[in-house]
Amino acid sequence: MHLVMHIYACNIRFMHDTAKRSAIQGLSQKRSVRAVVFDYGNVLCLEQTLEDMKAMALVCGIPHERFAELYWKLRPPYDRGDIDGTAYWTAVVGQQERSQQELGLSRDQIATLIKLDSESITRPNEGAVEWAELLHHEGFPLTLLSNMPLELSRYVTKFFPSLSTFEHLIYSCDYRSIKPELALFRNCLELLKAAPQDILYLDDRAENVEAAAGLGMTSVLFDTVEKTAARVESRFDIPVPSYSRSRQSSSQYTSTNRRPNRMESD
């Protein structure tokens, strides 16, 4: 009887030790990260609001539903740097129904549209910004990788102060390539001089995440700070923010301007 109890106790200790070792190994199997790359739109900043779009539509003299369609449809060459703000906004107005009189835009109206457009993408997503600040404090190099035209990128660099902690600001207009085109991701990898698998990339667009992953970058789809942080924490050895600190999300702003699933500004 004593022998049986001894064997039973040994088995229990063995199972406990095995479970403990497995738990420790599980923690050690989290992948390490050397650098973090953030998308901008709907990640570091909040989504544009319906009020934003209506304000720009009013200047253009176009119903806001039609305006939102044209705004995104004509965006790729603007983000790529093929055209400037004047050409982009002239094209938006020029696409209005041909049966209507050509509206045209004055120089002041174009300046107003560029200003409204720029201001609409500078509301910080506080939880994501705090996460970036935490990573910077812990010594992780940060890079921004965004589809953005020239005028807006310069405005964001100047008026979005959290970007001062980023080592690299990669805007599509400066490289004549937009996500999910691979050329822009290759430019990012060349600039970071790190192995793709050592880079964590966060983006709210599935096609961009897939493109980055195709080049070997560790890519995670961003939706909310809480959900994204939980996914990252479970897989990577990297600090994540306390969920209680994420006080602001895009749900606090009314918007019907969700982008369709195609190449557009990020």
The portion of residues forming beta strands comes to 5-15%
Strand order across the largest sheet: 4-3-2-5-6
Q: What is the molecular shape?
A: elongated
Query: What is the N-to-C order of secondary-structure elements (H for helix, E for strand)?
Result: HEEHHHHHHEHEHHEHEHE
**What CATH architecture of the largest domain would you give?**
3-Layer(aba) Sandwich
| Average pLDDT metric | 85
Query: Which structural class matches the secondary elements?
Result: alpha/beta
> Roughly what percent helix?
40-55%
Radius of gyration: 24 Å
Please give the domain count. 2
Major sheet details: 5 strands, parallel
Low-confidence stretches: 14-28, 244-265
How would you name the CATH homologous superfamily of the largest domain? Answer: HAD superfamily/HAD-like
Give a count of the beta strands, DSSP E runs of length 2 or more.
Answer: 7
CATH topology title of the largest domain: Rossmann fold
Report the CATH C-level class of the largest domain. Alpha Beta
Number of helices: 12
Q: Distance between the terminal alpha carbons, to the nearest Å?
A: 71 Å
